[in-house]
Write a structure and sequence with these properties.
heterodimer, A: alpha+beta, five-stranded antiparallel beta sheet, 5 strands, disordered N terminus, B: alpha/beta, six-stranded mixed beta sheet, two-stranded antiparallel ribbon
């Protein structure tokens, strides 16, 4: 852990949701991947990058949404999904899809330590959303954290 | 009266031994949602639970009790709520080598206070003898101060016998109510 992060952690006194143990360079790159994704035409209205254990690392979200909660929930869901898939020997999760009443949510692994969550508008085309999200995970995977 | 759908919740701070306790007592290989830790947890251990641990045990009368372990970190509070929704009781594990173990006991008792009011709790002090930061009497005194009467056990989370005692103590309390 860098000295800066140690100081932040000490100062905040509430290490868990504020311990963002990645470099600024990595965070910038993640934000850039998310910006590209949002403009890709998949009808996305938000996206987050989190650590596999549910720490928010980067996000494009409307005001009022809590990235920390999204990050934690995404990691829980993906871990449960992986466990269910491995229970029937189906390997790891490619994508976890939630089709809600007025939008879709897709969660994907992005390398061993990251995951991507995307939120689409109601009428988004699933294929497009999945393709763009998949591309974003490949770009994320290339980022050194 | 126990039902086939009854479940007991194991909770407590990171590193208290929740996953270990479920593994120690299970009749089957537990469902485990451990992933690589990237937060401060990693100074303590390599992986951490982000979804839940699940297993079950069969009691002597053949009845099955489901066991769920929660994630420890506060950010997974929503899982605490989901998991305890239909639980019948709580096992609270507190690692005695935490820098403020008694404070941790209070934190989880408060976080689960609604659930505990409806059900029951037993408190299990784990990781004793490594770097003890409290005595059993410290926990008991704090509970007394809070006007709460709950049993406190010193256990080894790796010991199926110890975990068994916890579960049976909890069931005994629940039967009385």
């Amino acid at each position: 852990m860098s000295l800066v992060n140690q100081v932040i952690e000490t100062l905040s006194g509430e290490s868990e949701s504020h311990c963002e143990d990645i470099s600024d360079a990595a965070r910038l790159k993640m934000n850039s991947v998310l910006a590209t994704l949002m403009e890709a035409g998949g009808d996305f209205f938000g996206a987050t990058v989190s650590s596999i254990d549910g720490i928010a690392w980067a996000e494009v979200l409307m005001p009022g949404f809590d990235k920390h909660r999204f990050a934690a929930m995404s990691s829980s869901l993906l871990a449960i999904s992986d466990e269910l898939a491995s229970e029937v020997n189906s390997g790891a999760t490619n994508n976890l899809l939630i089709e809600a009443a007025s939008g879709k949510i897709v969660i994907m692994h992005a390398g061993p330590l990251m995951l991507l969550t995307v939120f689409t508008k109601k009428d988004a085309t699933l294929g497009m959303a999945l393709a763009h999200a998949k591309k974003a995970t490949e770009a994320l995977e290339a980022i050194e954290i | 009266m126990l039902f086939e759908t009854d479940k007991i919740i194991f909770t407590g701070p990171v590193g208290a031994g929740k996953t270990t306790a479920l593994g120690a007592i299970s009749d089957v290989a537990p469902v485990s949602t451990d992933v690589a830790a990237t937060d401060s947890t990693k100074q303590m251990k390599r992986t951490t639970t982000v979804g839940f641990d699940y297993s079950y045990i069969k009691l002597n009368d053949g009845k099955r009790v489901h066991l769920y372990g929660t994630p420890g970190q506060d950010r997974f509070r929503f899982m605490w709520k989901i998991l305890s929704r239909t639980g019948i009781g709580l096992v609270l594990l507190v690692p005695n080598d935490h820098e403020d173990p008694v404070g941790q006991m209070e934190f989880y008792l408060d976080a689960f206070s609604d659930f505990i009011k409806k059900t029951g709790v037993v408190i299990a002090i784990t990781r004793s003898g490594i770097n003890d930061n409290a005595q059993i009497s410290d926990y008991q005194n704090k509970l007394y101060e809070r006007q709460q009467i709950y049993p406190v056990f010193e256990v080894d989370a790796r010991s199926s016998n110890d975990v068994n005692i916890l579960i049976h103590a909890l069931l005994a309390i629940l039967m009385q109510e």
